[in-house]
């Protein structure tokens, strides 16, 4: 093959590959963002693993020294294990070994049709996860719905929880004043409304990215609906259980949380006199994700105290 023809052939191949990448990104941008986050986690020393809990296929990330005190972090409704990627490094740097499971129905874990997705059953799954990987006692943290799950575990299995951390947490009996249908947005307008509730200054989402987010939301909406319906029954509320907790408790709240108001955090603090209550100024409901720089040192000081 002549050099000029060979160069033209290579150039055509490169252009075709570039076009495929651009088209793929345009059609499924969320997959590309997830792949980039996976790469960052792997490069930071995190490991993606799987285990089985009563027939449920559970995915989790783990990072930190193998002999470090174990910390288990539970994500919120519609979330996933990767939501802790900004906060976990602070605990790892302090010598802890951090486990971040995907709850049943979320992230890469199994999504069985017959599962209830209730707080009680998700809590059982987390305890089963701890059993499956041999964790007898942990420092337990949870965000939003995950905080509610963590409260339930701390009450039902106090011997398994050394310290409890809850971030912008659901759990007490105040029903949300917002339109919960926004948790499964179906239009760009609803997605914008949800973002405005989740964070103080939401970025403008390009139309092609919004389209892909809505596609994913549509695929998993039934799980969110089932979980939300169960939570709204009030059968798993923790008002009467929180005063019975004896372990040290850290409560962290974004001052601009429009999903679960700051007043709920104050009420939880009153129900647990031994708790430490920290308000993160300028942060919204996604404080553990977006304000890790402010929260990380607080968490480390609490866990090491």
Number of helices: 10
Q: What percent of residues are in strands?
A: 15-25%
Spatially, the strands of the biggest sheet line up as: 1-2-4-3-5-6-7-8
Regions with little confidence, pLDDT below 50 for 5+ residues: none
Biggest sheet statistics: 8 strands, mixed
Anisotropy-based shape: globular
Distance between the termini: 71 Å
Q: What is the percent of helical residues? A: 40-55%
Q: In angstroms, what is the radius of gyration?
A: 21 Å
CATH architecture of the largest domain: 3-Layer(aba) Sandwich
Structural class label? alpha/beta
Q: Any descriptors?
A:
305 residues, alpha/beta, Rossmann fold, 2 domains, eight-stranded mixed sheet
Description of the molecule:
The protein is an alpha/beta fold. It folds into 2 domains: 1-43; 48-304, Alpha/Beta hydrolase fold, catalytic domain (Rossmann fold, 3-Layer(aba) Sandwich). It has helices spanning 3-27, 29-43, 88-93, 119-132, 145-156, 188-198, 207-232, 262-271, 287-290, 292-304, and strands at residues 47-53, 56-63, 70-74, 97-101, 138-143, 161-167, 249-254, 275-280. Strands 1-2-4-3-5-6-7-8 form an 8-stranded mixed sheet, sandwiched between helices. Helix 3 (88-93) links the parallel strand 3 (70-74) and strand 4. Helix 4 (119-132) crosses helix 5 (145-156). It is globular. The model has no long low-confidence stretch (mean pLDDT 93).
